[in-house]
Amino acid sequence: MQYFQxxxxxxxxxxLLRQKEIGVFTVFRVFTMISxxxxxxxRAASFLPDLKxxxxxxRQIMSLLERPSEMEVxxxxxxxxxxxxxxxxxxxxxAYPDRKYVKILEGFNHTVEPGASVALVGQSGCGKxxxxxxxxxxxxxxxxxxxxxxxxxxGKNVKMLAPEWIRQQIGVVFQNPDLFxxxxxx
Length: 186
What we know:
By secondary structure, the chain is of the alpha+beta class. The chain has 2 domains: 2-65; 87-169, Rossmann fold. The chain has 5 helices and 4 strands. A 4-stranded antiparallel beta sheet has the order 2-1-3-4, with no helix packed on it. A hairpin with a 2-residue loop joins strand 3 (150-153) and strand 4 (156-157). The radius of gyration is 31 Å and the shape is elongated. The chain starts with a helix and ends in a 17-residue tail after the last helix. The mean pLDDT is 83. Pfam families: ABC_tran.
C-alpha cells in the first residue's frame, strides 16, 4: 500500500511538473509528506490489536468505578467548622465484610488529642491500615450509632458524618508512598 502511494504521488507529481503547474521542490515536499503519513498510519495500524484489549480493560475499570457504593459518600453531616483533630475509638469492633468471622478489632479504645503525632506500628495484619480506613469511613465499625461506641471525630460519631467531608479533613501517608526523583518545579 505504501509503495502504491509513493508511485501515485510520483506519477501525479510528474504530470503536474510537465504541465508546469508545480515545481520540483513542491513534488518532493508532497512526496515526503505522503511517505511520513503512510509510515504513521502503518505504525498506528500495528496497535489496533492492543487497542481492542485496552478497550476491554477500560470497560472493566469503568464498570468498577460506576458500581454503586454501599455507603453514600455525600450523605451525612457536613459540619461548618473544620475538624480540630480529636479522634476517639470507643470499644470499637470490626471485621471486614467478606470475612465476618475474623475480628480485626475487638474492644479497641484509644484517644488522639488535637495536634498529636501518632505512629501506628505493628506486625502485618494487626489492624494499622484498618484503623485509618475506619477513621476515613472506607468501612463502618460493627458498633451501633446509638451505643456510644465507635469512632468519633471531635466528639461526633463518624457514622453521622459524610465520608466526603471526613476525607477532605484528613490526609494520610501510607507506608509505601511513591516518591519521584525530580523537583517540584520539574
